[in-house]
Design brief:
This protein is mainly alpha-helical. The chain has a domain at 9-187 and 300-329: Rossmann fold (3-Layer(aba) Sandwich), CATH 3.40.50.620. The chain contains 13 helices and five strands. The strands form two sheets. Strands 1-2-3 form a three-stranded parallel beta sheet. Helix 3 packs across helix 12 (271-297) and helix 10 (242-255) crosses helix 12. The protein binds adenosine-5'-triphosphate and L-tryptophanamide (LTN). Residues 14-15, 17, 21, 23-24, 27-28, 150-151, 153-154, 188-190, 199-203 line the site of adenosine-5'-triphosphate (ATP).
Length: 335
């Protein structure tokens, strides 16, 4: 295949900061599997990003392994895609240093995730938290990725990665592909079940706010029963009805029906029935992931083989781009 005919490269990462949520799944992750048919896909567990917030080592190691297994359980095929753990490929961190030298302090200071996380972890505003978006740019640029599927909250980071690529190319000559974002049409921002003005997040302190993709059916039903709605009684998507809008979005994602179809289906029904129906649907929707995850966790040898192979393939691929960047900068060749 010639260079002009090559398949486009898709790349995305997720932090091993806990079990993935329904938001992670309905936003980016459920799209990752189907994309394997059309693209060369690279997916990884962003463990280096995760240590910007302090972690207990044993729990962190366990979470990284579970996150990798979840990635496969969500439909990533480690033969067709490159599926690996970020810290196993040193090239991300290497390129990150270089890119940091073409990134401005002011640009990083404007990142809303940095401001949010700095406020949340005021006792540990470390340099890694600040330069996190540079490492993310390196993750993307070191594979010359064309397309990056992410949720809405990562838009600003992707925009920065694009700016860094353009700036580097202008300064040193064509080196990096300028990546495009890929945002799901429905589900780019699933909201908390307890405060539907906020995104559903892994690290929410309220256990009823977030549905985790490994929650059992009873837990899922309980969380949906307690979901915050509004004082109106109509099931329709409208301004000011954040709770109902969120439930309709979740239902639409899980069933493939449009919001209008969902509104029609529940016309005249009460909020209570609607919440139960959404809960049932989500529990059934997540069941295959739970089963596959349990199966994979029984076979650590297989998992280890997969991430080792993934890391080796990732290293080879990223080396080409890293070497090119080094040459362009004027680093002396030693081979
Ligand atoms: P945390 O809450 O601890 O910051 P997180 O749930 O946001 O974690 P990340 O690992 O930061 O998880 O995100 C993984 C991917 O999931 C990202 O592409 C992000 O945009 C997407 N994502 C996260 N939350 C949601 C959500 N509520 N709806 C849709 N997509 C989401
Ligand atoms: N910052 C992202 C995770 C992430 C990522 C990436 C996503 C790290 N590196 C590269 C896409 C491409 C997050 O917190 N969701």
């Amino acid at each position: 295949m010639s260079e002009t005919e090559r398949k486009k490269v898709i790349l995305s990462g997720i932090q091993p900061t806990g079990v993935f949520t329904l938001g992670n799944f309905m936003g980016p992750i459920r799209n990752w599997g189907p994309l394997q048919d059309e693209f060369d896909c690279i997916y990884f567990i962003a463990d280096q990003h995760a240590i910007t917030v302090r972690k207990e080592p044993a729990a962190f190691r366990k979470q990284t392994i579970e996150s990798y297994a979840l990635l496969l359980a969500c439909g990533i095929d480690p033969k067709r895609s490159i599926a690996f753990i970020q810290s196993h490929n040193p090239n991300h961190a290497q390129l990150s240093w270089v890119l940091g030298c073409v990134t401005q302090f002011g640009e990083l200071s404007r990142m809303t995730q940095f401001k949010d996380k700095a406020a949340k972890h005021a006792d540990d505003i470390n340099a890694g938290l600040f330069t996190y978006p540079v490492l993310m740019a390196a993750d993307i640029l070191t594979y010359n990725a064309d397309v990056v599927p992410i949720g809405d909250d990562q838009r600003q980071h992707l925009e920065l990665a694009r700016n860094i690529a353009v700036r580097f190319n202008q300064r040193y000559g064509d080196t990096f592909t300028v990546p495009e974002g890929y945002f799901p049409k429905v589900g780019a921002r699933i909201k908390s079940l307890q405060d539907p003005t906020k995104k559903m997040s892994k690290s929410d302190d309220n256990p009823n706010a977030t549905v985790f993709i490994l929650d059992d059916k009873d837990t899922i039903m309980r969380k949906f029963k307690r979901a915050v709605t509004d004082s109106d009684s109509e099931i329709r998507f409208a301004e000011g009805k954040d709770g109902i809008n969120n439930l309709l979005t979740i239902y639409s994602c899980a069933t493939g029906k449009t919001i209008e179809e969902a509104e029609k289906e529940f016309a005249g029904k009460g909020y209570g029935d609607f919440k139960l129906a959404v809960g049932e649907t989500v529990a059934d929707y997540l069941e295959p992931v739970r089963t596959e995850f349990a199966r994979l966790m029984e076979d650590k040898t297989y998992l280890k083989e997969c991430w080792t192979d993934g890391a080796q393939r990732a290293f080879r691929l990223s080396n080409k781009v890293l070497s090119k960047a080094y040459r362009k900068i004027g680093f002396v060749d030693y081979r």
